[in-house]
Amino acid sequence: MAKRMLDCYASDFREFTKEDLLESILKSEGRVIACETIGTLQPMLGNVTNAEFAAAMGADILLLNMFDVMRPVIHGLPETEPENTVKLLKKLTGRPVGINLEPVEEGEEGETDPMWKMSPGRRATVENAKRAAEIGVDMILLTGNPGMGVSNPAIIETLKRFREAVGSQIVLAAGKMHAAGILSEAAENIMTKEDVKGFVGAGADIILLPAPGTVPGITVEYAREIVACAHSLGALTITAIGTSQEGADTDTIKRLALMCKMTGTDIHHLGDAGYGGMSLPENIFAYSTAVRGIRHTYHRMAASVER
């Protein structure tokens, strides 16, 4: 039987199965923090990875954005073989690691900033999902970066393929933090109850939706209905701050945190757009203390990876 994530050490995470990880999150009752980082950008601390920095500030789960499974790059990581990149990061941080993959067919990317330009190893293909499992990834999140043109139907079709290929090994999460270039799926249409049913039916273990107050039209009441729908179907949820508000002031962050708590969500997500590459570190700390208090926050920050 898995311990609640609040009480877990690195040694617990190393032994976790997919089922253990999901159970551990559920038992924490809305007090799990996931932080997104970009390894291809210059780390905020120069020679220490943004993922390590996020872990040090209280993150329970590390989510790598723009991570190419065929050409892994995490700046600030000690030199290692490409296939050892994720495993080394897990060793240094003692945290479960997830990655984003994007269900976009080649040549169908929307208009987007050059920094989001797609690479083969970031596409949500079965080959990349299997590669992710091989290199030690614990969770795959099917989502879309700004302007990429990721649609909910594309996510559903990808989930079906991933469930068959890696569903027994890796936690499958799915959803969008913003419209991701599909204007017909903006505001309150980003995630509907029908989308939730489609995602869970296709194999999603966790449903991601925008945090209240981050996307126009996403209120606490609206998000609460989506979360309740996911829970009724046996899925967990992530409320995501993916609109660069992870770089807002700490008072705003604490308000967003408590609104997310009111939705009943299981995992609280902070994106990678502080100055660029990760959330502002003080916001990870502020968010964590708002949803689980200082004791659990310091416990996560202080526990050695040797435990």
How far is the first residue's CA from the last residue's CA? 19 Å
Count of alpha/pi helices: 10
Q: What is the helix/strand order? A: HHEHEHEHEHEHEHEHEH
Anisotropy-based shape:
globular
**Which residue ranges are poorly predicted, with pLDDT under 50 across at least 5 consecutive positions?**
none
How much is the average pLDDT? 93
| Domain unit count | 1
Beta fraction of the residues?
A: 5-15%
Spatially, the strands of the biggest sheet line up as 1-2-3-4-5-6-7-8
Q: What is this structure's SSE topology?
A:
Elements: H1 10-15, H2 18-27, E1 32-38, H3 50-56, E2 61-65, H4 85-93, E3 97-101, H5 126-134, E4 139-142, H6 152-166, E5 171-175, H7 193-202, E6 206-210, H8 220-232, E7 236-241, H9 250-263, E8 267-270, H10 281-302
Report a brief summary of the structure.
The chain has 307 residues and is α/β, with parallel strands linked by helices. The chain has helices spanning 10-15, 18-27, 50-56, 85-93, 126-134, 152-166, 193-202, 220-232, 250-263, 281-302, and strands at residues 32-38, 61-65, 97-101, 139-142, 171-175, 206-210, 236-241, 267-270.
Descriptive overview:
The protein has 307 residues and is an alpha/beta fold. The protein has one domain: Aldolase class I (TIM Barrel, Alpha-Beta Barrel), CATH 3.20.20. Helices cover 37% and strands 13% of the residues. It contains ten helices and eight strands. The protein has an eight-stranded parallel barrel with strand order 1-2-3-4-5-6-7-8, surrounded by nine helices. The two termini are 19 Å apart.
